TrEMBL record:
Transferase keyword on record: yes
Keywords carried by this UniProt record: Aminotransferase, Pyridoxal phosphate, Transferase
Residues carrying N6-(pyridoxal phosphate)lysine: 181
One of the GO BP terms on file: polysaccharide biosynthetic process
Similarity field: Belongs to the DegT/DnrJ/EryC1 family.
UniProt xrefs under Pfam families: DegT_DnrJ_EryC1 (PF01041)
InterPro entries, sorted: DegT/StrS_aminotransferase (IPR000653), PyrdxlP-dep_Trfase (IPR015424), PyrdxlP-dep_Trfase_major (IPR015421)
UniProt xrefs under Gene3D superfamilies: Type I PLP-dependent aspartate aminotransferase-like (Major domain)
Molecular functions (GO terms): pyridoxal phosphate binding; transaminase activity
Active-site residues annotated for this sequence: 181 (proton acceptor)
Taxonomic source organism: Rheinheimera tangshanensis
Protein name as annotated: DegT/DnrJ/EryC1/StrS family aminotransferase
Keyword Transferase included in the entry's annotation: yes
Length: 360
């Protein structure tokens, strides 16, 4: 069987070498040395500052909203994983869905402009499949409208625009280090703040609102900590990250080569690079998509609609929704992600592509 995804496992000896440090110190959590080391190495690797590690990617989104004290509504995309909008709703910020751009599959700037109203405090775009949004366009919107821009960058580890990390854009970006992501720590995530003031405020809020200088409690707080055990996995995976990215990108490019002319792909940001996070293909109709999915399954190849359904059509959001999002709804019905993970071989990719072509 060829699954759609498989977590990357570093050599156990490498992982245990980091774990042994935690054992030797008898230090398992509370901003320990492994978490501190992972933070510094990630800042260095990604070329960013103000990176804060947290327990998962969803929490990193919630933390960003909280630091900016968002209220009212936030304009976001329906073509994403549910966590993008459920994290807003959980923090009592109403998600308002604008449509996506049919080329990039990312949130359309024009559609966002039509959905902004006097209760809008933020825009939450997603770099879908690791393909950067119109970051320059959103930057102008941020300046002209005084809105906070918080990127869900869960797919965008290692992605650059104009030679610098895509994580530099907006007021904050959120990464997920879930086991299925390009870089992972089993569970985990990070927020990257543009301003160090916001980073400092976040550090404070996430230590239960305790002022560590004297132990007094001075504000509301929460616990978002990453443990030393999770950081150990993160460090072991980070040791191998160049290999992981190179192999995944090579497989991604092989898919493009084999399937060009047969299916449609998202058009990549022209000043960016691939990170091989996901290979998404779109068919001409939902029916053709279903036929291929079932055909692949018959041959023990697992692919899946991703993302589906378009979130604006969910019952939990319908009541508060005004318009539809036709582009997102169409793409959600006719787009799948094909198998892509580190232990997948080029031979298997060719096999997946040939099988797919047979069922077209
Ligand atoms: C994985 C993912 C998340 C959530 O991350 P977790 O670490 O699983 O909480 C959020 N948004 C997108 C787009 C994702 O793919």
């Amino acid at each position: 069987m060829i699954p759609v995804n498989k977590p990357y496992l570093p050599a156990f000896s490498k992982y245990s070498k980091y774990l042994e440090q935690a054992y030797a110190r008898n230090w398992l959590t509370n901003n320990g040395p492994l978490v501190q080391e992972l933070k510094l190495r990630l800042e260095d690797y990604l070329g960013v500052k103000n990176l804060m590690l947290v327990a998962n990617g969803t929490l990193s989104m919630q933390l960003a909203y909280k630091v900016f004290a968002l209220k009212g509504n936030a304009v976001t995309t329906p073509f994403t994983f549910i966590a993008t909008s459920s994290s807003l709703q959980w923090e009592h910020i109403r998600p308002v869905f604008a449509d996506i751009d049919p080329k990039s599959y990312c949130l359309s700037l024009d559609s966002v402009k039509k959905h902004i109203n006097n209760e809008t405090t933020a825009v939450v775009p997603v770099h879908v499949y690791g393909n950067p949004c119109d970051v320059d366009g959103f930057e102008k919107l941020r300046e002209s409208h005084g809105l906070k821009i918080i990127y869900d960058a869960a797919h965008a580890f290692g992605v650059k625009v104009n030679g610098k990390s895509v994580l530099h854009y907006g007021d904050a970006s959120s990464l997920s280090f879930h086991a299925t992501k390009v870089f992972h720590s089993v569970e985990g995530g990070a927020v990257i703040f543009r301003n160090s003031d916001d980073y400092e405020r976040a550090m404070f809020m996430t230590n239960f609102g305790i002022d560590t200088s004297d132990g007094s409690i001075v504000s509301d707080g929460i616990n978002t900590k990453m443990s030393e055990v999770h950081a150990a996995m993160g460090l072991a995976v980070l040791d191998d990250i160049d290999l992981i990215l190179a192999h995944r990108t090579a497989l991604f490019e092989l898919y493009l080569k084999e399937l060009t002319g047969y299916v449609r792909f998202p058009v990549w940001h022209e000043k960016s690079n691939y990170n091989g996070a996901y290979i998404a293909v779109t068919f001409s109709s939902a029916e053709q998509c279903t036929k291929v999915l079932e055909g692949l399954k018959n041959e023990n190849i697992i692919a899946r609609r991703y993302f589906a359904p378009s979130l604006n059509t969910l019952d939990i959001y319908c009541a508060q929704q005004s318009g539809s999002c036709p582009v997102s709804e169409h793409f959600a019905s006719a787009t799948i992600c094909l198998p892509l993970y580190f232990s997948l071989t080029e031979k298997e990719v060719i096999h997946v592509c040939n099988t797919l072509k047979r069922y077209l």
